[in-house]
Write a structure and sequence with these properties.
Layout lengths: L1 H7 L15 H5 L5 H8 L3 H6 L12 E2 L9 E13 L11 H4 L2 E7 L5 E4 L14 E5 L3 E14 L21 E7 L11 E6 L4 E5 L6 E3 L6 E7 L2 E6 L4 E5 L4 E4 L10 E7 L2 E9 L22 E10 L4 E5 L5 E5 L4 E5 L10 E6 L2 E6 L5 E3 L8 H4 L5 E5 L1
Parallel strand pairs: 5-24, 19-21
Antiparallel strand pairs: 1-2, 2-3, 2-6, 3-4, 4-24, 7-8, 8-9, 9-10, 11-12, 12-13, 13-14, 15-16, 16-17, 17-18, 19-20, 21-22, 22-23
Protein name: F-box protein At1g65770
Organism: Juglans regia (English walnut)
Pfam family, one: Beta-prop_KIB1-4
Length: 399
Amino acid sequence: MVSQAAEIMGERVVDWSDFPKELWSPIGKSLDTGIDVLRFRSVCSSWRSSIPPSHPNSPRFPFQFPHPYDAFPTHLCQSTIYCIQPLDSSSTSTAATSSHIKGYLIKVQESASGKLRLLEPLASYPIRSYPRNTKTLNLLNFRIVEITKAYTLRFGSFGRAVVEDERRYRHRSVPGVNKVVMFPNSTWTNAEGCAIFVIFLDGKLGFAKYGEDKLTFVDDHRSDYDDIIVYKGQFYVVDRLGVVFWIECSSLKLVQFSPPLCGLGSRKHLVESCGALYVVDEYLYKERGRMEGNRSYFNRRRELHNTIDFKVYKLDEEWGQWVLVKSLGDRAFILGSDCTFSVSAQEFVGCKRNRIYFMELEESRAFNLEDHCIADLAFSPDPPSWLCATNLHELILTT
């Protein structure tokens, strides 16, 4: 059928096995994500042998990371958010089954043993709605696309001996940390070129290269940074006034990229959506304080405040000004505890348009930008029927 259609259109169909061998390696090495490389290498033994699984010196997670205040072993952990869909989703178009063919967001984190844990998409703790049985997820049965990566700092030696004093902190997220980002980080990245930035709850900005044993504070006189992301291959950070800075990694110089937002909100979030940069200004019922960075902060808990409103601004880079956004259209913004991103609501199960999803008191909530109402809405709903046969609490990806 495909050959007949191709002949009618004057096209020639070439079997994948006849593809020129000299192109296999360049195509394979143009794939940035591990999941794409894995699928490429699973096609056949020839394709598998054409490229290695990754760069020989690519980052291996979790890896030890310097902590500025305490001597407990701290490690940087990586999790990845994927969109998973059935392979035959395009063949079903009826309204009755439309919810079954939408994508489903999953967030997985690789442990030192190589197993992948399923986490809450908005948080960094194990998802609650799945049993704890171990199953296998065969990638050949699904279409999987990487959405973004997220990073957290955790205590623990991950398999090595630990001292008695740190047992109660083992594998727990490091308190006092607001956000961690790392770049570059692809399958072909040499770990020696990776840079990591950390924003602490006291508003300070720290920096370290992969493998370094000391954290350097960027502009130690300032402590008013709220969020940081990688945008168009560069690090961008926003302060409490809504001023966005571009970070020059070699000199750690901050270059002002935007004018002040002058928003009256208490906390600023950076989000990239459809290639544009946004600031989400979060309004809290009570003005938040700042946590001082010192050794006693182990006994402190992050202050909890009720969110009462959000305002969204888009940066007009041509005119150098912020534009108030009244509607996100079909988009939904996700303000996770360790990353921010946006998705098309119509493409995902349980996701609604013109919403901002965020965490509060360890519960997911949804803010409607149209009527400014906040609802307790599960961002990670029960899996669709095509995924129910697979128990995903702890999984191993196979091909």
